[in-house]
């Protein structure tokens, strides 16, 4: 039984204060964003509440949103994918090399670049499933391997000179003042929300993540589901790579790797909200923007940059801890096995 | 006209204010003129001037071995310097060997130990290899008679690590001053700059001080703020920080990323905030893709160093040290400004070491007795 079904079935019989706590837990991140906006907006209203700032915050974090979406699919199925950031970097570099150096049109270079992600996903899934090696180890290895490929094919150089139309279609063109990149990320979020919540495939993905043996005995094709989740992760992290190239107008061999930890932070922080206990796209989306609002506000106030790291790391730990407390899981409480395990448990 | 006490009292403060303003304007003009003069100096192609007495490099270096350890073999600037050093050394009859590494201090330690155990005459720690992290290995190397040298690490105003035999430093503070003066010259002394640096890189404090000292001297027309973005966080921190800064202060007219590879994260920040047209980028390093951005009109200027010149300057210092001559604690590396007028001289697309002229090649050959 998932946390969601637990809360759904138990909701009617639960006392009011518990239901209120549960509701608060679901919307805690949104409340958190509102509180941050209120604080920063009251201190520097002319800068923080300006439409320029709001649209900039929304448009500039699409890469992280898409990468987090790529991550929550295998996490839901119970697998880690530590190669997503390396895959993002590789796809970005392949696109840059093909378009800027080899002169391929974007219409050809983009499918090849996305294909690189699919291949990475297939390699990850094949090794994990055929050799029965934990996903953590395999994707750590393939991620490092991919980093080597990127350094090799790029000659350790930053590649610029891509077709301006990519940048045009990612951050220059705006709808309601917000760069298109935001809408791409939002569309992906809606698609994954529908997939996980309203399709048989999404349900199977969840069952596999909750308990592989139970899912197998229930007739779910566990291997196929895990294979597909890892390939989807590869494809979507490549899509994040395309957005990254479109955002910075070039590709460099290293910087994309730094998105790995923020993506994990957003995925786990997101799992405390909207559908608590589950990796979910809306929770992840709000988690990304919760962190961005905080960091942008601190920057506008001129707070020293190390405070941003304190906020980033502190917010994650505090949010998860509060989420546990909200469910009465204070340290020392008797926990059920299911409660101890938290959000769907990726097998290491 | 009769000047009464009353009139004097009435006009005195105004006259004083006027005089102050006039002298302030004169001061600002002087400063702007000085800034323009400095900029012009670095816009002309550098001409080689012998940095020391000539010597016969072939005879004193024959059979010697130098290990060069770049901060990372994945860093193209450092990698190209080592390659250039090896190419220059070969005809002189000695060997320059690169210790391949990926910026991991344990690999650096391994490299110094390798040099100690394999009869190298010198180890040159190039770029950001910090000798403070290699204390035991450097002590062992020196005990074995290996000369340990740093190159392109400290600023000339910084005290080098006492453990090294020779520190070939670079006047980064001068680059900082030049960057600031560029912005002063372009705006007639009305600068509002965001400076981006990475404090963990050894010369950053001196580099940034060069910028801020020059902007402070410029007077009330110039102001700045500083953002520290550690290298591992460039991709996540620079864009958001610059976005927030230019939104919070619409009068910002310059972003100064002190290392030009930071520019790739500044460009989207300016695009997404709609400030590309009125916020300029002035930077340092001469990395090819940034010179490409100058050609496209996205970056205003980039100060570069010739890699071939840097390589020869390091070799010159290192050879003088090994040959028992007087070696200077400073690299002889002229800086050169690339802007829209001359960026094409670096090639399209731009290449490392192109556009700086070649007077140094013949100059060093003559200095070392090769001609």
Describe the structure.
- The complex is a heterodimer of chains A (348) and B (371).
- Chain A has 348 residues and is mainly α.
- Chain A has a single domain (19-327), classed as ABC transporter involved in vitamin B12 uptake, BtuC.
- Helices cover 74% and strands 2% of the residues of chain A.
- Chain A contains 17 helices and four strands.
- Chain A has helices at residues 3-10, 16-43, 45-48, 51-60, 62-76, 84-101, 106-131, 135-154, 164-172, 180-198, 200-210, 212-217, 222-248, 260-270, 281-300, 305-326, 337-341; strands at 159-160, 174-175, 178-179, 250-251.
- In chain A, α7 (106-131) packs antiparallel against α8.
- Chain A starts with a helix and ends in a 7-residue tail after the last helix.
- Residues 1-11 and 330-342 of chain A have low confidence and may be disordered.
- With 371 residues, chain B is α/β, with parallel strands linked by helices.
- Chain B folds into two domains: 11-41 and 175-305, 3-Layer(aba) Sandwich (Rossmann fold); 57-170 and 306-334 and 353-367, 3-Layer(aba) Sandwich (Rossmann fold), CATH 3.40.50.
- Helices cover 45% and strands 16% of the residues of chain B.
- Chain B has twelve helices and eleven strands.
- Chain B has helices spanning 5-41, 57-61, 76-89, 105-117, 135-143, 172-187, 204-218, 234-248, 263-272, 288-295, 307-322, 359-367; strands at 65-70, 95-98, 122-126, 147-155, 166-170, 192-197, 223-228, 254-257, 280-285, 301-305, 335-338.
- In chain B, the strands form two sheets. A six-stranded mixed beta sheet of chain B has the order 7-6-8-9-10-11, with helices on both faces.
- In chain B, α7 links the parallel β6 (192-197) and β7.
- The longest helix of chain B is centred in the N-terminal third of the chain and has 37 residues, at 5-41.
- Chain B is globular.
- At the A-B interface, α4, β1, α9 and α15 of A face β7, α8, α9 and α10 of B.
């Amino acid at each position: 039984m998932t946390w969601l079904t637990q809360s759904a079935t138990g909701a009617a019989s639960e006392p009011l204060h518990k239901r209120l706590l549960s509701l608060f837990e679901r919307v805690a991140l949104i409340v958190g964003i509102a509180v941050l906006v209120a604080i920063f907006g009251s201190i520097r209203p002319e800068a923080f509440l300006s439409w320029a700032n709001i649209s900039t915050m929304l448009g500039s974090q699409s890469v992280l949103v898409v990468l987090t979406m790529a991550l929550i699919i295998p996490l839901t199925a119970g697998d880690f994918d530590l190669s997503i950031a390396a895959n993002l970097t590789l796809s970005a570099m392949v696109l840059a090399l093909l378009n800027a150096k080899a002169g391929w049109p974007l219409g050809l270079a983009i499918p090849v670049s996305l294909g690189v992600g699919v291949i990475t996903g297939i390699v990850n899934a094949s090794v994990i499933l055929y050799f029965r090696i934990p996903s953590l180890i395999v994707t750590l290895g393939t991620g490092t391997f991919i980093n080597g490929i990127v350094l090799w094919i790029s000659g350790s150089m930053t590649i610029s000179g891509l077709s301006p139309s990519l940048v045009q279609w990612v951050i220059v063109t705006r709808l309601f003042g917000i760069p298109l990149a935001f809408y791409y990320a939002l569309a992906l979020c809606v698609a994954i929300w529908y997939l996980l919540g309203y399709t048989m495939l999404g349900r199977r993905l969840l069952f596999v993540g909750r308990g592989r043996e139970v899912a197998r005995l229930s007739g779910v094709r566990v291997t196929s589901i895990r294979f597909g989740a890892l390939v989807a992760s590869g494809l979507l992290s490549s899509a994040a790579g395309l957005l990254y190239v479109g955002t910075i107008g070039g590709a460099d061999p290293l910087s994309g790797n730094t998105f790995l930890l923020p993506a994990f932070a957003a995925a786990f922080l997101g799992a405390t909200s909207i559908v608590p206990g589950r990796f979910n796209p809306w929770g992840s989306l709000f988690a990304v923007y919760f962190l961005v609002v905080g960091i942008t506000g601190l920057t506008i106030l001129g707070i020293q940059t190390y405070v941003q790291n304190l906020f980033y790391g502190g917010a994650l730990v505090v949010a998860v801890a509060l989420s546990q407390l909200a469910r009465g899981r204070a340290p020392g409480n008797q926990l059920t096995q299911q409660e101890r395990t938290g959000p769907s448990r990726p097998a290491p | 006209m009769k000047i009464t006490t009353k009139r004097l009292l009435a006009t005195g403060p105004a006259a004083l204010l006027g005089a102050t303003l006039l002298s302030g304007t004169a001061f600002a003009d002087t400063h702007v003129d000085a800034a323009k003069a400095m900029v012009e100096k670095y816009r002309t192609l550098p001409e080689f001037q012998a940095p020391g007495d000539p010597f016969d490099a072939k005879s004193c270096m024959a059979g010697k071995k130098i290990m060069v350890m770049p901060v990372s073999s994945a860093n193209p600037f450092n990698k190209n310097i080592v390659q250039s050093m090896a190419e220059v050394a070969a005809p002189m009859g000695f060997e320059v060997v690169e210790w391949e590494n990926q910026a991991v201090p344990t690999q650096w330690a391994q490299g110094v130990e390798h040099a100690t155990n394999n009869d190298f005459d010198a180890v040159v720690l190039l770029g950001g290899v910090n000798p403070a992290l290699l204390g035991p290995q450097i002590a062992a190397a020196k005990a074995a008679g290996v000369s340990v040298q740093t190159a392109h690490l400290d600023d000339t105003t910084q005290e080098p690590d006492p453990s090294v035999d020779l520190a070939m430093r670079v006047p980064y503070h001068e680059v900082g001053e030049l960057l600031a003066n560029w912005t002063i010259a372009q705006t007639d002394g009305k600068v509002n700059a965001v400076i981006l640096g990475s404090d963990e890189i050894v010369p950053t404090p001196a580099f940034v001080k060069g910028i801020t000292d020059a902007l402070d001297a410029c007077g009330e027309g110039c102001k700045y703020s500083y953002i520290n973005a550690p290298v591992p966080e460039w991709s996540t921190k620079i864009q958001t920080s610059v976005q927030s800064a230019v939104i919070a202060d619409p009068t910002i007219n310059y972003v100064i990323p002190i290392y030009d590879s930071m520019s790739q994260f500044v460009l989207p920040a300016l695009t997404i905030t709609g400030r590309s047209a009125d916020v300029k980028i002035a930077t340092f390093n001469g990395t090819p893709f940034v010179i490409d951005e100058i050609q496209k009109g996205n970056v205003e200027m980039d100060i570069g160093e010739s890699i071939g010149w840097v390589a020869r300057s390091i070799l010159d210092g290192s050879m003088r040290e090994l040959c028992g001559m007087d070696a200077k604690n400073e690299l002889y590396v002229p800086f050169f400004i690339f802007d829209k007028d001359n960026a094409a001289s670096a090639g399209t697309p731009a290449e490392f070491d192109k556009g700086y002229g070649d007077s140094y090649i013949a100059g060093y050959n003559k200095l070392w007795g090769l001609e």
